[in-house]
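User: My advisor asked me to double-check a structure prediction for Amine oxidase before group meeting. I don't want to rely on an old file, so could you generate it fresh from this sequence?
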Amino acid sequence: MESQNPKVVVIGAGWAGLGATYRLAKQGYNVTLLEAGAYPGGLVAGWKTPGGRSVEAGIHGFWYPYSNIFSLIRELGISPFTPFTRSSQYSPAGLEVESPIFQDLPRLPTPLGTFLYTQFKRLPLSDRLSALPLLYAVVDFDNSDEAWQRYDKVTARELFKDFGVSARLYRDSFEPMLLVGLFAPGEQCSAAAALGMLYYFILAHQPDFDVVWCRGTVGEKIFRPWVEQIEQAGGKILSNRRVSDILLDSEGLAKAVVCGDEVFEADAVIFAVGVSGMQKIVSGSSSLQNRKEFRNLMNLGAVDVLATRLWCDRKIHIPRPSNACFGFDATTGWTFFDLNALHDEYRDVPETVIEADFYHANQLLPMSDEEIVQMVQDYLAICVPEFRAAKICDRSIIRLSRAVTHFAPGSYQNMLPAKTSIDNVFMSGDWIINRHGSWSQEKAYVTGLEAANLVIERFGKGTTAEIIPVEPDEPHIQIMRSLNRNLRNLGNTFPPIWLP
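Assistant: Sure, here is a fresh prediction for Amine oxidase from the sequence you gave:
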């Protein structure tokens, strides 16, 4: 009977929360998912333009190593993705880089494939070669707790400078990757996070940078059918439920979750919200404020995002469907996407539909909609001159304050693991400490499964989810890492002197 099944409350309906809820519902748990917004999805929940068109907050890529998400998609029986696509990178000077589909080329040992096949238009070979000493840091950073402790208090900018990366390579290659990968400039990014992100998405294996895109909004193409299957399995998803507190029993275990006047009984609780959302909950929760680990997460930061979508009055030829841009603003990176090429609904329309998203967009959010539209069109025209003569028929401007995690130097010590000091409260999300090695949406989903597995292990009911590990390091990287660990154990001091 349902009343005999453990009651689990999951808070937050993004990749982590839906992943945990899906697994637990399938294992027969009485699981309730609470979402503060009107729809499940977090950043991929839906909005409408003035003209009534559906939009989402930005475009989210799905990279080659997202094995667990791709496995989920197969399990759901849906086909939401484009083929793998090529991408470009622009600066105010024009086209800077074109990336191939790496898996279609002969596979070379990492990082040779990335180095040789990426088509740099202006960056001299001498500058690219200046990155070679950085390979030691890549080897030394193995995603262990010790490696995070060594590198996290150093900025990414310091890391690249001290390993001899040329100023031009940093400015034209590494800094742009940080701005669109970690959403902040290098002097504001943890060196540990920079190494983890770059290795996972680019350096670990030649095809890792290959990416597919959803053929419509993620909310409609993925989350809607996923929610239907969760509900068919018995899970309950309640929107417009903003959690304000959790209640503890006399033994210090969570017994209920509070949403305004509503109280949801719980035998276990899984938090699956972003940093900003978690900080809001802690600010109003006397139960969590009494615990140092939750107070400490108030030290974590988040980054502002500006998501725009423009409908132009004519067809414009855009060489590549996905593009990253740098150098337009000193501390802001941005991307633009040809939705006529990526989204089914725009494939045959007469106008051009462009998504342009800006990260670390603090100084842009106060601008008026009209100023933002003009800025975006001006920037697009620098990359693709045909945009200059286009007229904007419709637009979507979504301002997202403190929307994505800021992996600032020193932040690792304030992040939480999946297990907390409350034995039946578990954490998940892309900012949670784990050892899987993934990033972004894949990491969020994986931590949701890990949290569900902890619940299953606690109650001894059901089967834990099988989590696909990241692809193993290539043999030469494994050998170098093993040698490095052995030398460390012998007391040798290989890292630069600024690393503790």
